[in-house]
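Late entry, evening session. Most of the bench is empty. Finally got around to the prediction I had been postponing all week. Sequence below, unchanged from the version circulated by S.P.
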Amino acid sequence: MDPIYTTNAEDQAKAAELRARLANSGASESETNDDGRWKEIKSVSIDDGAHKYVLVCATEPFPRETGAEALTRNFVTSKRGAAYHRNAAEPLVYTLEQHGFRNIQILGGGRIYCNEDEKKISIFGYSYSFGQAKHSVSKSVIESDERYSDYNVSWSNEGY
């Protein structure tokens, strides 16, 4: 049985353009003003319900301490109404770029189900455009966010 694609040639092309643009990005520290606002960007942004999500990593624009290296952070983001994983990724990527993050990479995607009433989050599936995210990493990112500390977070590589 052939797989059922939930993407199309246009989305595949736009996702490839986004990956290529990110591969060539990397603002230097001197190009970015350290106003500190980049520290306020949350590592997790999940809409309630079932949505496409992506796992993104990026290097912070500045070290947090004198003499230290800038940290690389992982981000998990989903977007209500995102037709494609690219649509879930683009708002976060734009925000990271605007705040001077470097080496931005979309590591993969899948689906995420967040039930705020039951305090449950399920991570599963994959993205045709970006590949399967390492859901165990996504789970760790979510669990490290104090807003989700009392949620039951699970993951599986099954399903789409």
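Two things to note before I forget:
The first strand starts at residue 44 and ends at 45.
Residues 124 and 156 are 5 Å apart (CA to CA).
Will write this up properly tomorrow.
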